[in-house]
Design a protein that fits this description.
Helix content: 10-25%
Low-confidence stretches: 190-196
Radius of gyration: 16 Å
CATH architecture: 4-Layer Sandwich
Number of helices: 5
Number of strands: 14
Largest sheet: 6 strands, mixed
Number of domains: 1
Length: 196
């Protein structure tokens, strides 16, 4: 798997591009902003899917331009689909597997930051959107978010993964499952705290 991380937009979002080195088929995760930059980065590849971790505007700002430029179908969880201006091409479901060439990505429904938040697992690499960051869960001080729910999602879907799984979040640098399990930010009884 070839992996590109693009930092885009004023919120310093991460847009990820996954490409099969053999077939040149690929996927885009969270076309957040700067569509020209994203389209330039996928030149030479055939984008099979555009995948959305959740429907917040800072993660979908370049969606329409990138879809027009690639012709790729868009997938988002049904609970967040109303955030899109256009109806998505398909809904993401927990446990679903999507392939592009030799790439295989599994959808993990991880509500809490938003009702339809998902992560994408590709082997020992997890693209977590705003569900988990280095040193803490995503922000739940926003409408539609739930602190206890995001903690339940992290414990049930992420902390069960191998410790050496690399977590690539929606903003900032990567971390690992082991590193996050070793922090004190994930007790299920803790009161809410802010996180972007």
């Amino acid at each position: 798997m070839e992996l590109k991380r693009l930092e885009v937009g004023s919120f310093e979002n991460n847009c990820y591009i996954l490409t099969c080195s053999r077939t040149r088929e690929g996927m885009i995760i969270d076309p957040a902003a700067d569509p020209e930059k994203i389209l330039e980065a996928v030149k030479g590849a055939r984008v099979k899917y555009i995948l959305i971790t959740h429907g917040h505007m800072d993660h979908i700002g370049a969606l329409e331009e990138v879809q027009e430029g690639t012709g790729a179908p868009v997938g988002i969880h049904q609970e967040d689909a109303r955030a899109l201006r256009r109806k998505p091409d398909f809904f993401l479901e927990d446990g679903q597997n999507l392939t592009a060439g030799s790439l295989s990505v599994q959808v993990l429904h991880t509500p809490g930051h938003s009702p339809g938040a998902v992560c994408f697992l590709a082997g020992k690499v997890l693209f977590s959107g705003d569900t988990i960051f280095p040193n803490g869960p995503g922000n739940t001080a926003i409408p539609g978010a739930d602190y206890q729910e995001i903690l339940r999602s992290i414990h049930a879907k992420i902390f069960v993964l191998p410790d050496d799984t690399i977590i690539y979040p929606g903003h900032g640098l990567e971390t690992t499952v082991a590193r996050e399990k070793a922090t004190a930010f994930y007790p299920l009884s803790e009161k809410p705290h802010g996180r972007t």
